[in-house]
């Protein structure tokens, strides 16, 4: 098909002269390539994009193909990740390209287990013609450090005077058994994307980037949502992410969105600069002048030292329309990038709705703590604008090559992460998953005001808390993002972390403030033998306060600002939420940089400890139902009981705790999201949560709604019924995910075959049916089809009633059917329910904060479900 370079040229000439139709053919010669490496037919990915086999482009050297033995749940589709091409010696691909044209090259790596290979041994270099893109690269280490299952690396290759591109993979000769691999390659012709840009700190100097080779480090739709490759502008197939994980500190400004009627008019800007969605959303500092004058709106990015970076800032003013209304200074690494004149978007573009971008270059030295790019904005007081505010719509950071090299070092696993990795390795007996990346948990990335660094700490803690042999796979999903997670303690702000000053007066008034000596005394000076777990925030100690009250004390890792944020989030949230089925916060301690949260002690531990891998007696079905009902109440309260909808985000059996009376309490709100502005009914965010429990819709659309919690709760229900982990990679493929496996069996009518053997024959069939119907609805693919937590609760109550009436009769299911006559399960279905129930069910007012109110409600509940009372 490809006719070769020499023939191509005249054909190309003719095309220009000939008909349009042939012109189209010419353009096709430049069309982009998407190759699924090692696959013989290619395939279609989750976005509907077609990937071809790479077999037509194999150049010199030997290679073999392999298929990963495990599909990580974060892989949205098998293509292009499950197939790989493996190189044990130097190997080249050869691609036809248009001469003098800039190209994106994207590599997709899935460092998983491939038969007969140990992925930890894979170190390799990648070169494009004579440019080194990666060297001594370990996809496995990088993915672990970023807590991603797979990696995407994107490069922009400068135009060359040649019509072929050679991409060479070379395994390192420093490691025995080393090999190289790749899962996907994309080649996309692009316009000239770069120009010259001023060097920050030297306003008279600029750096010419027209002929530089670049690596994309970050690409963010500021205050907007994830934009998939298919929705990029100009056909450049770029992916844009949310900026929240990179914001510094608690002052993160406000999101603004352009009026739907306002049209974005690109004017002189080419449409490939960025998609409309980037320009329609922006982050500004906020409405309050005095607040805005007191802080800098700041983003922080980890990068490799010894390189020059192009920082591209995208702007589009859609609120104001006159010059000198919103004027601000831009700083990069504490140096003025744009002050003279300061940034005035209308001044640049002339009118509202017209986008533009500005490029700045900055050199990053190699000194301790230097491997960061800070982008900060604050109002320009000198120009006396009408409003003291700043604005940013989008941001990209590119690394420029130095002497034809773009490769940086592998990130270092933080000590904690390395330890967690060890634990997880030990806990897996299955050799095929033993040093597999997907066992590295990770909730990196997503939560508001929680940076990547903090999130990684959380991951580690959560993992360490895992019971060996089980497998909560959490992982984040931030492809492309820079490989720069070096340490978990970088953003220390010593001396500044006075958390109480971050706390609202209300929160301080609602819970007790302990002194550090009190806490030290309660925990024998944080004695290691008092550690009962490691949570989202730090180690958890048991302790005894006032000589009698048993408490659990979470002690923070005092080293990060993110820690402070989370601390504050948790106190603010928990102190206002009081509910019988939420773990209650007794108080906190904040002194000498120690931050502790003090909770009720949950004597019986996590729900999971009582379901499988246990030595304890097995819970009866009724006990399990009651625990499910209790947790559903807690979640229902979170969703509807407070002023704002609170989305838990990490519902799972280890976050449901049991007190000494078997009362279930939902815990771990450090990562919860509130949605005061859930106008569209969702919060847009980077995916986080625990694998096995993650809502597939949340994955697809990166929009969080309370229905994501419903999905996770559905998994919890099946976990309780089937007594197996949400994910168990040691099982055959179709059984790995409990959600899929249980749904499959429910639909086939074989659910009874997979329930906990200890429950077999002990559940009233109607109850089992109701329970599994409820769980199945929770797992509906689309959030809109899932019931609300109130509905779930109602159905579970009904199950319990079915179970109880049958067992109190001590008779067969036939009598229970009679007992429930008149309220067959269909009558209870959501739509047919009496309206009375709904109004009396509401937990919506803040006066419901105390347990009495909750109990009243539960009494009403039971009354309606069970007309005879109980
Ligand atoms: C591990 O992988 C090998 C090679 O693919 C396979 O033969 C073996 O059955 C796998 N073992 C397990 C426990 O999955
Ligand atoms: C893989 O290689 C690493 C490092 O070389 C080694 O520690 C590990 O035990 C190997 N794993 C297997 C399953 O051979
Ligand atoms: C992508 O574009 C399609 C079609 O325009 C639209 O329906 C979809 O919502 C977009 N997706 C995102 C995440 O913006
Ligand atoms: C950066 O350059 C300096 C001086 O050439 C060198 O000593 C240092 O090792 C380099 N750092 C990195 C991370 O490559
Ligand atoms: C910028 O200044 C802040 C304090 O003002 C400091 O913590 C930070 O390290 C500086 N950043 C860089 C890259 O120099
Ligand atoms: C904002 O950043 C600039 C430049 O780094 C710094 O001089 C200024 O002190 C910062 N202002 C605040 C309030 O942190
Ligand atoms: C290659 O990377 C590993 C892991 O980051 C590092 O320990 C090693 O020193 C590197 N080797 C070379 C030759 O740079
Ligand atoms: C924190 O701030 C509060 C009030 O602003 C003050 O009373 C307290 O002493 C401060 N604590 C520390 C450790 O600085
Ligand atoms: C259900 O499982 C059977 C075999 O266990 C498999 O053939 C079938 O494809 C599965 N169906 C779905 C929808 O996953
Ligand atoms: C069963 C029950 O408690 N019903 C109450 C529902 O709420 C209305 C008013 O809000 C009361 O009048 C009902 O008694």
UniProtKB/TrEMBL annotation:
Low complexity: compositionally biased ranges: 807-825
Membrane topology: Single-pass type I membrane protein
Record keywords: ATP-binding, Glycoprotein, Kinase, Membrane, Nucleotide-binding, Serine/threonine-protein kinase, Signal, Transferase, Transmembrane, Transmembrane helix
InterPro entries on file: ANXUR1/2-like, Kinase-like_dom_sf, Malectin-like_Carb-bd_dom, Prot_kinase_dom, Protein_kinase_ATP_BS, Ser-Thr/Tyr_kinase_cat_dom, Ser/Thr_kinase_AS
Annotated Pfam families: Malectin_like (PF12819), PK_Tyr_Ser-Thr (PF07714)
Domain spans labelled Protein kinase: 526-798
UniProt-listed SUPFAM superfamilies: Protein kinase-like (PK-like)
Ranges of Polar residues composition bias in the record: 856-870
Domain of life: Eukaryota
Position of the signal peptide: 1-26
Binding site for ATP: 554
Compartments reported by the entry: Membrane
Region: Disordered, residue numbers: 807-870
Protein name: Protein kinase domain-containing protein
Organism: Xanthoceras sorbifolium
């Amino acid at each position: 098909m490809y006719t070769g370079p020499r023939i191509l040229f005249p054909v190309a000439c003719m095309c220009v002269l000939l008909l349009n139709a042939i012109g189209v053919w010419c353009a096709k010669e430049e069309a982009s390539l998407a190759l699924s490496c090692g696959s013989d037919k290619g395939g279609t990915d989750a976005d509907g994009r077609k990937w071809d086999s790479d077999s037509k482009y194999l150049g010199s050297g030997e290679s073999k193909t392999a298929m990963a033995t495990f599909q990580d749940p974060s892989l949205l589709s098998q293509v292009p990740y499950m197939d790989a091409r493996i190189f044990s010696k130097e190997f080249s691909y050869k691609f036809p390209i248009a001469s003098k044209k800039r190209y994106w090259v994207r590599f997709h790596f899935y460092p998983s287990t491939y038969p007969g290979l140990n992925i930890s041994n894979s170190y390799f270099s990648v070169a494009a013609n004579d440019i080194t893109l990666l060297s001594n690269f370990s996809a496995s280490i990088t993915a672990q450090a970023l807590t991603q299952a797979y990696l995407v690396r994107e490069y922009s290759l400068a135009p060359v005077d040649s019509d072929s591109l050679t991409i060479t993979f070379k395994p390192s000769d420093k490691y025995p058994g080393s090999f190289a691999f790749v899962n996907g390659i994309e080649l996309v012709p692009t316009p000239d994307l770069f120009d010259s840009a001023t060097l920050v700190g030297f306003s008279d100097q600029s750096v010419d980037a027209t002929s530089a080779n670049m690596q994309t480090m970050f690409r963010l739709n500021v205050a907007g949502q994830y934009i998939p490759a298919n929705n990029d502008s100009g056909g450049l197939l770029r992916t844009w992410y949310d900026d929240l994980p990179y914001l510094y500190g608690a002052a993160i400004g406000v999101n603004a969105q352009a009026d739907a009627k306002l049209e974005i008019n690109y004017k002189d800007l080419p449409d490939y600069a960025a998609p409309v969605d980037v320009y329609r959303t922006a982050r500004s500092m906020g409405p309050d002048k005095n607040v805005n004058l007191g802080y800098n709106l700041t983003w922080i990015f980890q990068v490799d030292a010894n390189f020059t970076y192009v920082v591209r800032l995208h702007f589009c003013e859609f609120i104001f329309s006159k010059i000198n209304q919103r004027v601000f200074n831009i700083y990069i690494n504490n140096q003025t990038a744009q002050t003279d004149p300061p940034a005035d978007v209308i001044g640049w573009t002339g009118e509202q709705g017209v986008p533009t971008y500005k490029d700045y270059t900055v050199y990053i030295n190699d000194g301790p703590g230097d491997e960061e790019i800070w982008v900060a904005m604050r109002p320009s007081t000198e120009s006396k604008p009408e409003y003291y505010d700043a604005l940013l719509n989008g941001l990209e950071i590119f690394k420029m090559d130095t002497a034809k090299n773009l490769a940086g070092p592998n990130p270092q696993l933080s000590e904690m992460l390395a330890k967690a990795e060890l634990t997880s390795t030990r806990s897996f007996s299955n050799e095929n998953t033993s040093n597999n990346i997907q066992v590295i948990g990770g909730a990196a990335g997503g939560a508001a005001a929680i940076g990547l660094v903090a999130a990684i700490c959380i991951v580690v803690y959560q993992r360490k808390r895992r019971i060996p042999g089980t497998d909560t796979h959490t992982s984040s999903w931030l492809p492309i993002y820079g490989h720069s997670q070096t340490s978990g303690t970088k953003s220390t702000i010593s001396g500044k972390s006075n958390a109480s000053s971050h706390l609202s007066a209300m929160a301080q008034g609602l819970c007790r403030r302990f002194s550090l000596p009190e806490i030290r005394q309660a925990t024998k000076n944080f004695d290691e033998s008092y550690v009962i777990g490691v949570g989202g925030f730090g180690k958890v100690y048991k302790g005894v306060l006032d000589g009698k009250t048993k408490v659990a004390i979470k002690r923070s890792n005092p080293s990060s600002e993110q820690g402070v944020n989370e601390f504050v989030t948790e106190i603010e949230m928990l102190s206002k939420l009081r509910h019988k089925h939420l773990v209650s916060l007794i108080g906190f301690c904040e002194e000498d940089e120690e931050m502790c949260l003090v909770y009720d002690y949950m004597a019986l531990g996590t729900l999971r400890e009582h379901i499988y891998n246990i030595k304890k007696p097995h819970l009866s079905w009724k006990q399990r139902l009651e625990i499910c009902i209790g947790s559903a109440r807690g979640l229902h309260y979170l969703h509807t009981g407070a002023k704002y909808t609170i989305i838990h985000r990490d519902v799972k059996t280890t976050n449901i705790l049991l007190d000494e009376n078997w009362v279930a309490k939902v815990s771990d709100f450090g990562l919860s999201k509130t949605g005061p502005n859930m106008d569209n009914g969702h919060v847009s965010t980077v995916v986080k949560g625990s694998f096995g429990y993650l809502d597939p819709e949340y994955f697809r659309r990166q929009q969080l709604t309370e229905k994501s919690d419903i999905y996770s709760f559905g998994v919890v229900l099946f976990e309780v019924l089937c007594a197996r982990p949400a994910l168990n990679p040691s099982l055959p493929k179709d059984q790995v995910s409990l959600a899929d496996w249980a749904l499959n069996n429910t639909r086939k009518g074989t659910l009874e075959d997979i329930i906990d053997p200890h429950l077999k024959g002990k559940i009233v069939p109607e109850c089992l049916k109701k329970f599994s119907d409820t769980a199945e609805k929770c797992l509906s693919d689309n959030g809109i089809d899932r019931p609300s937590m109130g509905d779930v609760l109602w159905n579970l109550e009904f199950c319990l009633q079915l179970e109880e009436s049958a067992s109190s009769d001590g008779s067969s299911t036939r009598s229970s059917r009679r007992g429930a006559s008149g309220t067959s399960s269909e009558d209870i279905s959501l739509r047919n329910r009496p309206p009375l129930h709904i109004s009396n069910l509401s937990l919506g007012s803040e006066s419901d904060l105390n347990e009495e109110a909750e109990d009243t409600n539960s009494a009403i509940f039971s009354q309606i479900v069970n007309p005879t009372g109980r």
